[in-house]
């Protein structure tokens, strides 16, 4: 257990060093927001206010999924970009969907998760958060992501996700068993669902979406039709969401 904790802390320290100064947008609440249209998917744009919008792939080669799996998943998501990104219900034009790509060992993801979850929970919120697991930092990340998606099959995704985001952990079988017990999910069913085709396909689809949208690390958000690579503050999230409503993002998304 001690060795596992040391390994976890070592991973977090390495990741924090890699992310430092690269993934955080400055406070953009009072500055002009600059956007650049992307060629594909059509109708989307990228917030260009930081070096984190560059094409440098910090995590190249770290994703365990093979090229054939991603090719199949990419074909699936390209057939219905917005459905894969946001789910089937795009009728609420006054609630802007926010797709959030996250990784449990990413330190900035933990901050971004708290911000987005708080905004999504407000009674007067104009946001609808959709979470995409994008495990990029090794086997423990992938196991944790599969466990969270398996917990979703038992209605416990939020509880599982919040617990993982608040913990220093290694996703060992013993840890997952204890976590399942604490949260109140069926451990055996959790393990079965982790190995299931639907969970694998969901992970593959999120990875394929990241590739299609040029997302090369976490955290990343797509607010309506605006792609944002890196952590942003609450004011900027709300500001972009308001712009999406004013500019009627839904038809843009549906014609992508």
Which helices and strands appear, and what pairs or packs with what?
Blueprint: H1 2-19, E1 35-37, E2 45-47, H2 67-79, H3 81-86, E3 96-102, H4 107-121, E4 127-133, H5 139-152, H6 157-165, H7 173-183, H8 187-194, H9 197-212, E5 220-223, E6 226-229, H10 234-246, H11 249-254
Parallel strand pairs: 2-6, 3-4
Antiparallel strand pairs: 1-2, 3-5, 5-6
Describe, in plain words, how this protein is organized in 3D.
Helix 2 packs across helix 9, helix 5 crosses helix 8 and helix 5 crosses helix 9. Helix content is about 50%, strand content about 10%. With about 260 residues, the protein is α/β, with parallel strands linked by helices. Strand 1 and strand 2 form a beta hairpin. The chain is globular, with a radius of gyration of 18 Å. The chain contains 11 helices and 6 strands. It has a 6-stranded mixed β-sheet, sandwiched between helices. The N terminus is likely disordered.
Key traits:
50% helix, 256 residues, 11 helices, six-stranded mixed beta sheet, 6 strands, disordered N terminus
Number of helices: 11
- Biggest sheet character: 6 strands, mixed
Beta percentage is 5-15%
Q: Give the assembly state of these chains.
A: single chain
The strand line-up of the biggest sheet is 1-2-6-5-3-4
Spans of at least 5 consecutive residues with low confidence: 1-22, 50-64
Structural class: alpha/beta
Give the termini distance in whole angstroms.
48 Å
User: Roughly what is the average pLDDT, rounded to an integer?
Assistant: 81
What is Rg?
18 Å
Form type: globular
Number of strand segments: 6
How helix-rich are the residues, as a percent range? 40-55%
The helix-strand sequence is HEEHHEHEHHHHHEEHH
């Amino acid at each position: 257990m001690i060795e596992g904790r040391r390994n976890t802390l070592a991973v977090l320290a390495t990741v924090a060093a890699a992310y430092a100064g690269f993934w955080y947008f400055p406070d953009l609440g009072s500055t002009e927001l600059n956007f650049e249209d992307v060629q594909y998917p059509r109708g989307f744009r990228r917030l260009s206010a930081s070096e984190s919008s560059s094409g440098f792939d910090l995590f190249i080669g770290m994703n365990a999924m093979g090229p054939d799996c991603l090719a199949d998943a990419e074909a699936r998501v390209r057939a219905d970009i917005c459905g894969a990104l946001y789910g089937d219900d795009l009728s609420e034009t006054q609630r802007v969907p926010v797709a959030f790509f996250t990784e449990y060992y990413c330190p900035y993801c933990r901050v971004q998760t708290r911000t987005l979850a708080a905004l999504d929970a407000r009674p007067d919120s104009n946001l609808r958060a959709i979470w995409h697991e994008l495990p990029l930092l090794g086997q423990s990340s992938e196991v944790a992501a599969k466990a969270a998606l398996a917990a979703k099959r038992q209605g416990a995704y939020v509880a599982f996700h919040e617990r993982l985001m608040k913990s220093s952990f290694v996703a060992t079988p013993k840890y997952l068993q204890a976590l399942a017990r604490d949260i109140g999910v069926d451990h055996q069913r959790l393990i079965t669902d982790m190995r299931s085709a639907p969970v694998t396909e969901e992970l593959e689809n999120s990875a394929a979406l990241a590739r299609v949208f040029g997302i090369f690390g976490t955290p990343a958000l797509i607010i309506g039709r605006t792609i944002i690579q890196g952590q942003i503050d609450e004011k900027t999230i709300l500001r972009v969401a308001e712009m999406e409503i004013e500019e009627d993002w839904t038809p843009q998304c549906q014609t992508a």
